Amino acid sequence: MRATCWHGAGDVRVEHVPDPRILNPRDCIVQITSTAICGSDLHLYDGYVPTMIEGDILGHEFMGEVVETGRAVQNLKIGDRVVVPFPIACGACFFCERGEFSLCENSNPNARMAEKMWGHSPCGIFGYSHLTGGYAGGQAEYARVPFADIGPIRIESDLPDEKVLFLSDIFPTGWMAAEACAIRPGDTIAVWGCGPVGLFAMRSAYMLGAGRVIGIDRFPERLRIARENCGAETIDYQETDVLEGLAEMTGGRGPDACIDAVGMEAEGHGIVGAYDRVKQALRMQTERPTALREAIIACRNGGTVSIPGVYGGFADKMPIGSIMNRALTIRTGQTHVQRYMRPLLDRIQAGQIDPSFPITHRLSLDDAPQGYRMFRDKQDECVKVVLKP
Amino acid sequence: MDTVSLRQPTLSPSDQRPVGGLPSKLGPRSPRRTALASSRPRVRTDRQLAKGLGWFSIGLGLGELVAPRQVCRAIGVDDHPAVMRALGLRELAAGVGILSQPAQPAWLWSRVAGDAMDLALLAAAFMTAERDRVNVAVATAAVAGITALDVYASRQTGMHVRSQPGHLRGDGSVRVEKSIAINRPPEDCYRMWHDFEALPRFMQHLESVRVTAPGRWRWVARAPAGMSVEWDAELTNEQPGELLAWRSVEGSEIENSGAVRFLRDRTGRGTIVHVTMQYKPPAGALGAAVAKLFGEEPEIQVREDLRRFKRLVETGELPTIDGQPSGRRPAWYALSGGSNR
């Protein structure tokens, strides 16, 4: 089969590789009909995520048709149309039982490696380095899905792929980020990053009762989508100082909650930005947490900073004093996708949201390398790339 | 999810009866807690002594480096500033080593070696000195006193190291103790562990375990260089749902014993599985190979064994990527073997 493989920073190639096969009784094999490139894939593409090995197959947002099931899979049969969640979860451990699927204790074969890095290991993830298990990802023609009795959700309706694909990651991610803000009716929510996750966070915030949502970015097309599709007010951080702008918009108090949908490769500005860039280039700092620092400082006293943006290691100069002295709540984590797929599918089917709105480019799987470059460089007003194998 | 067994369980009712005779080595019900070695009072005083000697080394070393002539004069030896500086460097190195690794006996023993060198030099100086014999004598007495302290500190530190789990003890045995939380009741965990023939599924160093008689098993373990080691083991205690203890029989190549406790956790629904194992590698070449048999770090080996056991109990399978597809690998990849242990 063809698969998108990582070969170093800035180097992804579509190669011919063997088809996946059932390795464990609870596996299934999915023939992939649609798959997407995620913002977090760009961290792999830019070489900032450690433990990648040349040849690793990328991709964690995918859906398709079940073509084979392991002998212990009862809930799925060949021919079922499924969307696959990006975290791999067993359903039986302490965390899965609590609905915290991205914290599964049993799905990461490299748990010991993750423990050394992070203290304890989270779940395994498709196509996201050997720290999370090294599982082959879904930017390919086929994928092996472990714990198929827990993860994939069956799509019974005839909704096209584009309307359900994002249940795999970015819609639940935006939703969980907004839910984490504990929104009270009328609250003001500020979202750093008007990429796909930020856009879903804005839509979700309104659905959860927010009164006012403010999107922060610098790319005109993204700010436009935030205004037109998500009903948000926007701040272009190249034109306006973000902290001042937010203060103006909230009577000086600051937003009730701030969502960092940017993550570890934030664009820096000024001296602090230069500091972050240099240190990250020298690998003396693993992150560039510009947006996160801003979100913390901007948040009102007692508010919540919700972090769906992906980080990997250690960030310098965190305003822990601001967090402590003003009683901020920090909520974060990899999305517990399995928990949200059913309720969000219901909302899609009820017509409350058409999740295909961020898609700007539809490419063949063979054009994945161009897709990555375009997505990273925001060429051609690129916001979201969907690949068809 | 239905109860999953490691394989088809083959317990007969008679196996459930507790084996009479030898009491469990673990004693009373609550797990013996291994206090952190560094928190015991004797260890703290010894650690302070070691650090004191470390600082003494640094102070003396600096003095010898910076003012070698004055030191020579003070201890009554001839003026050899170059030699004194070299001795100063040695002292500094020992001091830095001790302060950065106070639990490591090797640095303290290096001080003893240095003391022996100093005593030898002082003895030579005493023979040749004419005027300053008193100074040399006093210096010698001082060094002798320090030597005694160094030897004491070295031995104490070594002893504390050996009493930690995973290390070779005075009698040549290794002891390991580990526990893990499992989200299933103790009875389920007990039943799966009692199926000894399935132990190799999660104990990686075992090749096979076969019943040879009721209450008796033949264990075969993998050793490096394609060797294998075998021994017979017997169950010494079983309390259903709570405890299993086993021991290699008299005359085994490797004496070893183990016990696993299944403790209900605070929610009442899960289990804390607590394992203690000890083994005594035989002497000689086989011993050296066997020491590696359980891995250079037996603690890690047991921890990973328990993680595999937990995964088998909770999910019925072990997560793996062995056999999955990938693109073209770099040249070194073939040497790394399986990426999934």
Task: Explain what you see.
- The complex is a heterodimer of chains A (389) and B (341).
- Chain A has 389 residues and is α/β, with parallel strands linked by helices.
- Chain A has 13 helices and 17 strands.
- Chain B contains 8 helices and 7 strands; from the N terminus they run αααααβαββββββαα.
- A 7-stranded antiparallel beta sheet of chain B has the order 1-7-6-5-4-3-2, covered by helices on one side.
- In chain B, a hairpin with a 6-residue loop joins β5 and β6.
- Chain B is elongated.
- Chains A and B meet through β1 of A and α8 of B.
What secondary-structure arrangement, pairings included, does this model have?
The complex is a heterodimer of chains A (389) and B (341).
Chain A: E1 2-6, E2 12-16, E3 28-36, H1 39-45, E4 61-69, E5 81-84, E6 87-88, H2 94-97, H3 111-118, E7 124-125, E8 142-145, E9 153-154, H4 161-164, H5 170-179, E10 188-192, H6 196-207, E11 212-217, H7 220-228, E12 233-236, H8 242-249, E13 257-260, H9 270-281, H10 290-298, E14 304-307, H11 320-325, E15 329-332, H12 337-349, E16 361-364, H13 368-377, E17 385-388
Helix pairs in contact in A: 5-6, 5-12
Chain B: H1 41-66, H2 68-75, H3 81-100, H4 105-128, H5 133-162, E1 174-182, H6 186-194, E2 206-213, E3 216-222, E4 228-239, E5 243-248, E6 255-264, E7 271-280, H7 284-293, H8 298-315
Antiparallel strand pairs in B: 1-7, 2-3, 3-4, 4-5, 5-6, 6-7
Features:
heterodimer, A: 389 residues, alpha/beta, globular, B: 341 residues, 43% helix, elongated
Give average pLDDT of chain B, whole number.
82
* Number of DSSP helical runs of chain A: 13
Structural class of chain B: alpha+beta
Gross morphology of chain A: globular
Low-confidence stretches of chain B: 1-35
What's the helix-strand series of chain B? HHHHHEHEEEEEEHH
Question: Structural class of chain A, please?
Answer: alpha/beta
What share of the residues of chain A lie within helices? 25-40%
Compute the number of helices of chain B.
8
Strand content of chain A: 15-25%
Q: Give the fraction of residues assigned to helices of chain B.
A: 40-55%
Terminal CA distance of chain B reads 26 Å
Report the major sheet of chain A. Answer: 7 strands, mixed
From the spread of the alpha carbons, the general shape of chain B counts as elongated
Mean pLDDT of chain A: 96
Secondary structure: number of strands of chain A: 17
- Largest beta sheet of chain B: what is the strand line-up? 1-7-6-5-4-3-2
Helix and strand pattern of chain A: EEEHEEEHHEEEHHEHEHEHEHHEHEHEHE
